[in-house]
Amino acid sequence: MYSLPTPILSFAEASLCNLLSSAPASLVLEAFVLAQEYGDERLRALREDAAYWVVRGWHDLLCDGRQVSEPACILSTALGMIEAVLRQRAGGMPQKPSCSRV
C-alpha cells in the first residue's frame, strides 16, 4: 500500500486540523473515522483534534438526522481518546475504576 511521504502527510494533517473547527459535523466525523481506520501514528494529532470536534458536534449529527453507523462505538472511541490526552497532560492521573454490573 502506498504511503505518503512524512512531510506531505504532516502538511495535510496540519491543514486538516485547522479546518476541523469550521467544518460541518458530518465532515469532522468522516475525518475522524478515516484517521482511525488509517491507523498511522503520524496522524495522532488529527485523530485527537477530530475526536474533540466529534464530541463537541455530536448533537449536530443527531439533530441533522444523519444515520451514523455504530454511534456508541464512535462516541466511546472519541471520548476515550480525549480522556487519554487529558490524562497524559495531567501527568498520569489515576484511572477511576470502570463501572461493572453486579
Provide structural commentary.
The protein is an all-alpha fold and 102 residues long. It is 66% helix and 0% strand. Helix 2 packs antiparallel against helix 3 and helix 3 crosses helix 5 (71-89). The longest helix is centred in the C-terminal third of the chain and has 19 residues, at 71-89.
Essential attributes:
mainly alpha; 102 residues; 5 helices
SSE topology:
Blueprint: H1 6-20, H2 25-38, H3 44-56, H4 58-63, H5 71-89
Helix pairs in contact: 1-3, 2-3, 3-5
Q: Could you estimate the helical fraction of the residues in percent?
A: 55-70%
**Integer-rounded radius of gyration:** 15 Å
Query: Which outline best applies?
Result: globular
The SS-based structural class is: mainly alpha
Strand content: under 5%
Largest sheet: none
Distance between the termini: 46 Å
| Structure summary, number of beta strands | 0
Please write the string of helix (H) and strand (E) elements.
HHHHH
Tally the helices: what do you get? 5
Q: Name the assembly state.
A: single chain
The parts where pLDDT drops under 50 for at least 5 residues are: 97-102
Q: Give the integer mean of the pLDDT values.
A: 82
